[in-house]
């Protein structure tokens, strides 16, 4: 049995892939539905009320499974691979603030869309690597963790597969960095759901679950038995975190997810 979390946005102005609303409401709903954790997508780490989330996490007995950084790129346009040094520096400063939150909440932070979408892939990768070196050094210093998330080719031009994420992790060689999987992106990029997970053994720190169409698991054509079998094989112990379109509405999507995943796991 893996712990199950749901992605949530607790600040206004974020397009959520999961639950959204006031922090109290989100924690209450997730706990009522039987989730073990909440993954927080944070818009502005410098003004985020970490104390409140710490309190709620304790009150409802829910972990903060991970901290998402999507708005850094999607709202503020900051990218770790940007050809512009000034933009990369701003992105790095922002990621350091996320790492401080991750340290406080004992949660890894996700490097997904903030990798950017560089036109020149080779230079983009070089820039990404040098930015991540700075982030990893900071993470080591404050004891925080980074997870590299491969995204599908329509969302990023670099690091589309788990193998590419593992290779990048090994080039950087920092213990503070792991990789994570997202079944929605994997459905587009990986040859085999099973093999790609098994090959990421030793590095996998978090898993986003959604079906082939990014609806709740069970609403598309992904074989979640295969996903669970692979995770089981590598002795995975971290979260399955639902990152799903909030359709037909956030609550129904979240309820369908937990029902279906518990059924598959039983
Ligand atoms: C975006 O598609 C995604 O999967 C997020 O988790 C990016 O960080
Ligand atoms: Mn994801």
Average of per-residue pLDDT values = 97
CATH-defined fold name: TIM Barrel
> From the 3D coordinates, which CATH architecture would you assign?
Alpha-Beta Barrel
Q: What's the CATH first level? A: Alpha Beta
Structure description:
The chain is an alpha/beta fold and 266 residues long. The protein has helices at residues 23-33, 50-60, 71-74, 85-105, 121-142, 162-172, 183-189, 193-199, 224-233, 250-265, and strands spanning 4-9, 19-20, 37-41, 63-68, 109-111, 146-148, 177-182, 204-209, 240-242. Strands 1-3-4-5-6-7-8-9 form an 8-stranded parallel beta barrel, surrounded by 6 helices.
Short description:
This protein is an alpha/beta fold and 266 residues long. The protein has 10 helices and 9 strands. The protein has one domain (4-265): TIM Barrel (Alpha-Beta Barrel).
Strand and helix map with partners:
Layout: E1 4-9, E2 19-20, H1 23-33, E3 37-41, H2 50-60, E4 63-68, H3 71-74, H4 85-105, E5 109-111, H5 121-142, E6 146-148, H6 162-172, E7 177-182, H7 183-189, H8 193-199, E8 204-209, H9 224-233, E9 240-242, H10 250-265
Helix pairs in contact: 1-2, 4-5, 8-9
């Amino acid at each position: 049995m893996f712990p199950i979390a749901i992605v949530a946005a607790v600040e206004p102005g974020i397009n959520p892939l999961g639950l959204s609303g006031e922090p109290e409401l989100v924690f209450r709903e997730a706990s009522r539905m039987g989730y073990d954790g909440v993954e927080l997508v944070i818009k502005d780490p410098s003004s985020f009320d970490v104390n409140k989330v710490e309190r709620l996490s304790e009150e409802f007995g829910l972990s903060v499974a991970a901290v998402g950084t999507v708005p850094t790129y999607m709202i503020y346009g900051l990218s770790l691979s940007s050809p512009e040094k000034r933009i990369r520096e701003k992105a790095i400063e922002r990621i350091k603030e996320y790492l401080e939150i991750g340290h406080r909440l004992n949660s890894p932070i996700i490097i997904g869309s903030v990798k950017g979408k560089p036109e020149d892939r080779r230079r983009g990768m070089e820039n990404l690597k040098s930015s991540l070196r700075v982030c990893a050094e900071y993470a080591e210093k404050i004891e925080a963790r980074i997870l590299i998330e491969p995204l599908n080719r329509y969302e990023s031009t670099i690091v589309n597969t788990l193998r590419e994420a593992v290779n990048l992790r090994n080039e950087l060689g920092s213990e503070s960095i792991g990789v994570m999987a997202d079944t929605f992106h994997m459905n587009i990029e990986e040859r085999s759901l099973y093999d790609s997970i098994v090959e990421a053994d030793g590095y996998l720190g978090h898993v986003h679950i959604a079906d082939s169409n990014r609806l709740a698991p069970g609403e598309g054509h992904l074989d979640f038995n295969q996903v669970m079998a692979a995770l089981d094989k590598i002795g995975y112990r971290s979260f399955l975190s639902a990152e799903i379109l909030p359709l037909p509405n956030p609550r129904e999507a979240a309820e369908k997810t937990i029902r279906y995943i518990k059924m598959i796991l039983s």
